[in-house]
Amino acid sequence: MVGRRDFLRSSVSAAGTLLFVKNSPLPFAPDSSGADSRIEVLLGEPLGTISPNIYGHFCEHLGGLVYDGVWVGEGSKIPNVNGIRKELVDEMRKIHPAVVRYPGGCFADSYDWRDGIGPASKRPRRTNFWAGAEKADGAASHKYEPNQFGTNEFARFCKLLGAKPYLAANVRSLSAEQFYQWVEYCNSPAGSTTLAEERAGAGFREPFGVQFWGVGNESWGCGGNFTAQEYAVEFRRYTEWVPRYEQEISFIASGPNVDDWEWTRGFLEELTHKGKGRLPSVWGMALHHYAWNLSRGKTNNWEQGKGDALTFDLVDWYELLREGERMEGLINGHWQIMGEIDTERRIKLVVDEWGPWYRPGGEMTPGNLLEQTPTLRDAVFSGMTLDIFNRHPEKVTMANCAQLINCLNSLYLAHEDRFCVTPVGHVFGMYAAHQGGQGLRTIFSAPVTTYDRDGKAATFWGLKGAASLHDKQLVVTVVNPHVSEAREAEIGVRGATVKSGSVITLAHTDIHAHNSFEQRDLVKPQTSALSGSGKIVHHTFPAASVSKLELTLA
Ligand code: AHR
């Protein structure tokens, strides 16, 4: 990968792990049902509102993501809405996408937004940031950016989805002035500025109303190779004056790579060098974490450490989950450092890139750069990760899965007129029910999963998830990571009884199962009624599964 730093193991433990809490009175006594696990939802212990924005997406000009995935062109025989793939829009609407990040990623710091506006036939072709990584026979539109999809088309895409746009500004190679003008193009009122008139000329009289602005991307690497201190100076400069037009603006600072604690501390120290008055200029601090190292501790080499997307054994399954599980420690660790300087807790975390990253070879459309075909493993990974965000609503205010279509942890795959929803897409569909709910502390206790890691016993947790309350409706999502053992659980809600409920389960007998253009529904959520009601209900969580319980409380 371009400029990604070597990873060091996090020294912060997964502090959010929810096991039995000693001395905590049980709301219900174990019964004789043979249950091996227990889930207790604590109605009296709210965690905060789960921001819909943690169910966010990421759309970069990279490989087949924009050209082929999102944009098929207005004259295409593939059903489209003003050039945007219709099936994608229809599917995304079902999952209530809150926010979409664009145009990168690393691409963002090489992109001139002016190339992507104005008459489509006059827009220039430019060398894509990712051109060097493309194969010689790679698609021309993936190597040489044709700029047919730009700010206007992206704004239309967001409008069609009912999602908010999140734009990442180019700090490495454009000036602060050009950043202000992009804001002006997007947000200045109809008829007010020359750029507003240019926007109107393209058919967009009303402002796009872009609230979220990323100030660079991975500024420690592809976004300029700055030190944290140098970047803080740039951040102050880029955000010191930005036109507002009565539009709330939220700046997202390029934050740490994985467990680079010094970036977080160094950035905030330099930002506040002249006083803490600068803290409110940061709405969110970006955090990036990809789960890529499946070498079982043998190497930290970015190329050698990666595993395969489709061919894996059960150790690889657990290794990926272990890598993903680091997210909770990263959130807690960076949050603690942020609090040393931001004592009033104005700044939240924005995990605007997350997901598994495998070596090339697992593409549905061979040759598509960074495309991988998500399996049931990635669905379990994604459920686990979204539950980590759900459990930290006071810290995580936005997250963007990397990336939407034809890329890393994609929700969708498409090529020409073919399309499918991946198991990851189904998880987003199930978990949308958490959006805007009140997160509740929930205690999961289950037998620990053990496995043989190259001759040494290794463990992973047995059952975990998250709960949120929406009036009288309780949503509980649960991941069973065990490749072969189901978990029979007693479920109790302290402070309420369960009147009725339903369950949606995503599972398959083959842990490698995935959807494809030929078998679009191999991995698909199944709905069933929850048997029982009262103080305790029972449910069996199948092996290697993601489940959602929707319970009506009395
Ligand atoms: O998601 C792919 C790339 O990973 C992004 O462009 C970059 O920000 C990160 O390194």
Notes on the structure:
It is a single chain. The chain has 10 helices and 25 strands. It is an alpha/beta fold. It has a 9-stranded mixed β-sheet, with helices on one face. An 8-stranded parallel β-barrel has the order 2-5-8-9-10-11-12-13, surrounded by 4 helices. It has a two-stranded antiparallel ribbon with strand order 3-4. Strand 17 and strand 18 form a beta hairpin. Helix 6 crosses helix 7 and helix 7 runs parallel beside helix 8. It is globular and about 70 Å long. The structure holds alpha-L-arabinofuranose. Alpha-L-arabinofuranose (AHR) binds next to loops. The site of alpha-L-arabinofuranose has 12 residues, from loops.
Q: TL;DR?
A:
This protein has 10 helices and 25 strands. It is an alpha/beta fold and 554 residues long.
Task: Set out the fold topology.
Elements lengths: L36 E13 L6 E3 L21 E2 L2 E2 H9 L4 E4 L23 E2 L12 H4 E2 L5 H11 L2 E6 L6 H12 L6 H8 L10 E4 L12 H13 L9 E4 L7 H11 L12 E8 L22 H28 L6 E9 L19 H15 L5 E6 L10 E4 L2 E4 L1 H9 L6 E8 L3 E5 L2 E5 L3 E7 L2 E8 L6 E8 L3 E9 L19 E4 L6 E6 L3 E9 L1
Helix pairs in contact: 4-5, 6-7, 7-8, 8-9, 9-10
